[in-house]
Amino acid sequence: MSTINGPTTSNLSINNFKGIDADIARIIWSKLGTSPKVSMSEQGYIDEQGKPHGALVHLVFNQCDMGMNQLFFRDFWRLETYPHGYAKIFALSRELNYESTVASLPKILETYVISTLVVICMLVTLYLKYLLKIDIASASFKTLKMLLGMGIGKIPRGTMNRINFTFLFLFMFSMNIYLQSMLTSSLAAPENKFYIDDKEDLEAVIPDKYTISGPAYIKEFLDNKTIAPHLISSSFQDCISKIHINSNYVCLADSVLISDQAKSHKNIHISRVGIENVQLTFVTREDWPLRKRINELMQRLRETGIMTNMMIKEQIKSHFTLYVQTQDYNSTDSNLKRLTLESLKFDLYILAIGNYLSLVLLIIEKTLSKLYHKKRIDNLKIFRQTNAVANH
């Protein structure tokens, strides 16, 4: 009897199944001159304590003779045949739903930032009303212009008032730079919202309190020491359901499982690159008399090129299926890499230098204008005095 992945059923024919494992199994059983009965079981694996699970339990207790469509466990394991296919472990996460800038502002700016900003603007408005002797509406408009880094076109009278106004302008200018930096970093680099497309992306989200989950057998194939300790065992269906609820949830699953079950789930992003590469193999009962004969048939299929040809066709079909799924699921461009403050640091420096340079030029312009105006008045006085003397 043969065993493959899935819910528990029994008395199925090998002809009911498709795929490279079913095709090779049909060739093998036709060479043996018999036809097996097939039952469905979960993916077999061995946990950290060496205890078998899934299809391997049936093999250990002689409840079946061979397991089909099993992932390759380790090199030259005594119960395995030659690998006959390839598979990859992919990361599944929730597809991004981008919001407009206005709708996302309350999420970008914390509540205390917004409340503090409102209080400061109210105080600045009242102070401008006192300094410039204007109405509250004009003061509010000038406060908004200062917050946006614009000039207000009016300077108060009196030396002390001008000094206070200068400090106020510099304060609002610094606040403008702070808000621009916060908005730029938050909108360009949303740390809690991005696609997971490869192993590096998956490693990057671990410090951000992302939950990594998946079937228990996945852990056996994770060579990555950073990811494996954080994997939480759960069924594929539970994992998918939690992705829809929590955007900080990642599910790991093999390509065989994804191609069978992930098609029915929308708004799920499949990583473009596999996290780990694994192979498909048959597993057999150790004391099965036909084990040696099946291995010989598998070796012959490989040597004659039949298995290689079937593997190439299966790979093309598998990659095309995943490509179509990825195109369907990814309505937005996930090739864009996240920007960070490190990559924006140079641009922010240039922005700050440009803003401060503009302020310096404004002060120089005002100073030169006053000096020119004063010199013109002095020249006019001298001219008048000269004319008065000449008239006398």
UniProtKB/TrEMBL annotation:
<keyword id="KW-0675">Receptor</keyword>
<keyword id="KW-0812">Transmembrane</keyword>
<feature type="transmembrane region" description="Helical">
    <location>
        <begin position="112"/>
        <end position="132"/>
    </location>
</feature>
<feature type="transmembrane region" description="Helical">
    <location>
        <begin position="163"/>
        <end position="183"/>
    </location>
</feature>
<keyword id="KW-1003">Cell membrane</keyword>
<keyword id="KW-1133">Transmembrane helix</keyword>
<dbReference type="InterPro" id="IPR052192">
    <property type="entry name" value="Insect_Ionotropic_Sensory_Rcpt"/>
</dbReference>
<dbReference type="GO" id="GO:0005886">
    <property type="term" value="C:plasma membrane"/>
</dbReference>
<protein>
    <submittedName>
        <fullName>Uncharacterized protein</fullName>
    </submittedName>
</protein>
<keyword id="KW-0325">Glycoprotein</keyword>
<keyword id="KW-0472">Membrane</keyword>
